[in-house]
Amino acid sequence: MLHRTELLRIFCCAAESASFREAANRLGISPQAVTRAVQELEAQFGEPLFHRSTRQVRITAFGEQLAAEARPALGSVEQLFQRHSREQRQDLAGSVRITAPHSLGRNVLVPLLAPLLREYPQIKLDLRLSELIADSVDERIDIGVRIGFVRDRSYIARVIAPIRLQVVAAPALLQQHGMPDNVQALQDLPLSALVDHNTGRIWPWYFADQQQFVPGQPAFTTDDQESECAAALAGLCVAQLPDYLVTEHLASGRLQAVLGDAAPEPFELFIYRPQRGPVAARVRLVYDHLFQQLGAALSAL
């Protein structure tokens, strides 16, 4: 049984056509479907809508009155759906501002977001790469991606994937200086140091059983993990880096893992958004896309 609105739509098309077959062709249905719809309406109203003969079909006076009343009602329904569709499209248009670390933004986030942005060209990406924890209100951040944990309860956060830290070095450097057999022996090697943008201090190196140390006299200091990785590849230093930066280089042999048994518990990569008011459809779309795709991309490494 068809919905009453659909019955009326078929009937109005039949009322404007020379025959049920012509109406069927216009609607893309069979003539029998037109006949059944008209018969069902006639049964509901208790009135004939068409005079039928073997040669022609002619609308009745009641049918003309019903068609005149039904057309504006059907038009209102169509306008309702069109307006809702326009509002949905408008809600999927506009800027989405994302903050993320440099090491994730260039090589990971942009490739993952590109297919979505091609599908929804009205969404404009505003990607801010920084190691600083941005104030979501002051900097109008819609979505953030960070490694560690969320300190601010005003954010809604979801863990995407574990991030493992690995100590790595170029094989030539290890041949020159020797392979360390414990954490303390690392201090005798040329080490890298990563500056924490939030404090200006050097990030400590983390190890199992909550061991950590800060490189005392680093051979290479930077505030950018991709540069730190490049320095390790060049044989300048031993570095502790996240797995998404080094997995490819370990597989190719350009880097070698050091002290794998002393690796710390993984950190968490999480995605967050401010907890304020309703979430625009475009923001929710990008948020859900990143949550799904970023987790899948990192798990494939």
What does this protein structure show overall?
This protein is an alpha/beta fold. It contains 9 helices and 14 strands. The strands form 5 sheets. It has a 5-stranded mixed sheet with strand order 4-3-5-14-6. A 3-stranded antiparallel sheet has the order 12-7-13. Strands 1-2 form a two-stranded antiparallel sheet. Helix 5 links the parallel strand 3 and strand 4. Helix content is 43%, strand content 22%. The protein has 3 domains: 87 residues, Winged helix-like DNA-binding domain superfamily/Winged helix DNA-binding domain (Arc Repressor Mutant, subunit A); 104 residues, D-Maltodextrin-Binding Protein, domain 2 (3-Layer(aba) Sandwich), CATH 3.40.190; 98 residues, D-Maltodextrin-Binding Protein, domain 2 (3-Layer(aba) Sandwich). Helix 1 crosses helix 4 and helix 5 crosses helix 9.
